[in-house]
């Protein structure tokens, strides 16, 4: 050891220095860590999610033809966009599904207020389906 602590009989402390021992090399700086960010190049949806959106498309088409209300037209547009989104692998396909969720969450209280319980149940299942599709989507990264 190059340095050593020496205690005297009276309790004093001194540090001894040995010049014959060469000083230790200072530690080299750590190697820089290279963090490589990966981008999502595709989003793949489960085949059951795709089939469920196809079924919702048919239900929405039936509601549009049978009832033909403004709100059914809006629902039909959102389900077309969401169905198209789950059948593509583009990373941006998450956006129409999120838009569908936001729309369904904001319009669902209106259906409760006007006692449209079947439409409310339809929207709640849309919210569950859209949320499930986003949570279970497989992100393909580079």
Summarize the structure.
By secondary structure, this protein is an alpha+beta fold. Helix content is 54%, strand content 13%.
How would you describe this structure to a colleague?
The chain has about 140 residues and is an alpha+beta fold. The protein has one domain (about 40-140). It has 4 helices and 4 strands, in the order βββααααβ. It has helices spanning about 45-65, 70-85, 95-115, 115-135; strands at about 5, 15, 40-45, 140. A two-stranded antiparallel ribbon has the order 1-2. A two-stranded antiparallel sheet has the order 3-4. α1 runs antiparallel to α4, α2 runs antiparallel to α3 and α3 (about 95-115) runs antiparallel to α4. It is elongated and about 105 Å long.
Q: SS-based structural class?
A: alpha+beta
Mean of the pLDDT scores?
Answer: 90
Instruction: From the alpha carbons, calculate the radius of gyration and give it in angstroms.
Output: 33 Å
Number of domains: 1
- The rough form would be described as elongated
* Tally of alpha and pi helices: 4
The biggest sheet, with number of strands, parallel, antiparallel or mixed sense and barrel status, is:
2 strands, antiparallel
Low-pLDDT stretches are: none
Helix content: 40-55%
């Amino acid at each position: 050891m190059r340095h050593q602590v020496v205690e005297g009989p009276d309790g004093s402390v001194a540090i001894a220095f040995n010049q014959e021992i060469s000083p230790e090399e200072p530690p080299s700086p750590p190697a820089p860590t290279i963090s490589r960010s990966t981008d999502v190049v595709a989003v793949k949806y489960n085949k059951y999610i795709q089939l469920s959106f196809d079924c919702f498309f048919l239900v929405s088409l039936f509601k549009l033809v049978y009832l033909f209300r403004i709100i059914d037209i809006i629902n039909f547009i959102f389900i077309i966009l969401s169905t198209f989104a789950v059948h593509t692998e583009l990373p941006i396909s998450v956006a129409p599904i999120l838009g569908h969720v936001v729309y369904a969450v904001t319009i669902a209280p209106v259906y409760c207020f006007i006692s449209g319980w079947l439409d409310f149940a339809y929207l709640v299942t849309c919210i569950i389906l859209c949320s499930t599709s986003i949570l279970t989507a497989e992100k393909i990264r580079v």
